[in-house]
Amino acid sequence: MTQSTGAERKSQKDPDFDKWYVASAYQDFVRQEGVPLYQGSYLEDLITLELGDWERRGGKAAYTRLGNQEVNNLQIVEIPPGGQLKPEHHMYDAVMYVLKGRGASTLWQEGGQQHAVEWHEGSLLAIPLNAWHQEFNGSGSEPCRIMFGTNMPEIIRHFHNLDFVFNCPYVFEDRFSSSPNYFSGEGKKWNLRLFETNFIPDIRNFDLDEWPERAERTYIMRLAMANTSLGLHILEVSEGTYTTAHRHAAGAHVIVVDGEGYELLFMPGDEMNPENRQKVWVQPGSVIAPMTGEFHQHFNVAMKPFRQLAVRGGPAKYGSGSTYDPRGAARGDNPNDLQYKLSFTLEDPNIREEYYGELERRGIDLRLPPVDQ
Q1: Is residue 335 exposed (0-12), middle (13-18) or buried (19+ Cβ within 10 Å)?
Q2: d(C-alpha 251, C-alpha 4), whole Å
Q3: CA-CA distance, 294 to 251, in Å (whole number)?
Q4: How many CB atoms lie within 10 A of CB 205?
Q5: Contact by Cβ (8 Å): 268, 293
Q6: How many Cβ atoms sit within 10 Å of the Cβ of residue 313?
Q7: Beta strand pairing status for 73-79 and 144-150?
Q8: In which band, very low, low, confident or very high, does the pLDDT at 323 lie, cut at 50, 70 and 90?
Q9: C-alpha span between 280 and 91 (Å, rounded)
Q10: What is the pLDDT of residues 189-246, one digit of tens each?
Q11: What's the chain's average pLDDT?
């Protein structure tokens, strides 16, 4: 796996790029961290991704700048056997997903009670805003690898003051509670496809609601965690199923947590142009992060559900002020109104034919209803 910079790619097209380009405060921060910064729209495997020594907190780490945006990112961290990270707190939102291994986190607010949460592969834990947190590897013989999904880039770019971002003393009492069941409660389902909780022991078997608007035998659950400003959801695509192509603003990171499949990515205008469609194979640990307006769709090729975790903007519990027309967006049947979803009736028929060929090679008999239904 290689790393690149936006400046490197753009300077190949614009010979004067280096004369006017100014790196962001976020890019400067990662450079100070002394660890890799990964870019593009796809990373094959976060579990084996090459990391760098991380002096500030210990262990190893890498950051991302995926989808050609600096609003949200991933921070991939490895803790050595029997090791621990140095505690920190910060003015950006974060959720932690466990890619490999087991361990525990201690979380607290200044002067408040400490909460200890044990986790393992598949766990999802909210980090309350500006709360202290520290992570420990529970194995003395194997490293563990965790991933933080955050809005760090946006916050660092906005304030461009690391002392404020990492040393602000303000306590967000509405984000964190001293209640002993803050991380162990049953959670609450607010309505269809919206569940509030602060810790999920294993999102690979978390209950989801049906989502027929996206495809047959497809399921989703939006998550509200620790009053975060991050948008989160778990999506499951069943055996023999793929979803309609859809697009939105950049910043969403889709991480595969179970099953296997492939993703198609293409820009508007290339709906019928296979040469301009990017096809990437994914398995647990893979991540895609589409650019603004880039269509993408998910294909399950295994004899089991294909499940993904999305970390993005637009929190489920709070309105995001979206400006697109929900009537046309939900319908997706007007070729001149491709704001959100491209229905199966408008996609290249070769997409379905290629997918069914892959299912046949794997001995999978399930199929979607005919396109004209």
Answers
A1: exposed
A2: 18
A3: 11
A4: 11
A5: yes
A6: 18
A7: antiparallel
A8: low
A9: 34
A10: 999 999 999 999 999 999 999 999 999 999 999 999 999 999 999 999 999 999 999 9
A11: 90
215 neighbors 244 (Cβ within 8 angstroms):
yes
Contact 46, 147 (CB under 8 A): yes
Tokens standing for residue 354: 């290629």
Q: What beta strand segments (E) does 158-217 contain?
A: 188-191, 194-196, 199-200, 209-210
Bin 159: left if φ > 0, else alpha if -120 < ψ < 50, else beta: alpha
Residue 113 pLDDT > 60, yes or no? yes
Q: Per the structure block, which two tokens stand in for 92?
A: 């950006």
| Start-to-end C-alpha separation, the chain | 43
Q: How far apart are CA 96 and CA 105, in angstroms?
A: 10
Query: For 36, phi and psi rounded to 5 degrees?
Result: -65, 150
**Residue 340 identity (one-letter amino acid):** Y
Which tops the pLDDT comparison, 322 or 194?
194
Length of the chain: 373
d(CA 345, CA 347): 6
Q: Any residues with CB less than 8 A from the CB of 7 and at least 6 apart, and which?
A: 17, 18, 21, 23
Residue 286 · residue 255 · CB < 8 Å? yes
Distance CA 280, CA 349 (A): 19
Single-letter amino acid code for the residue at 105: S
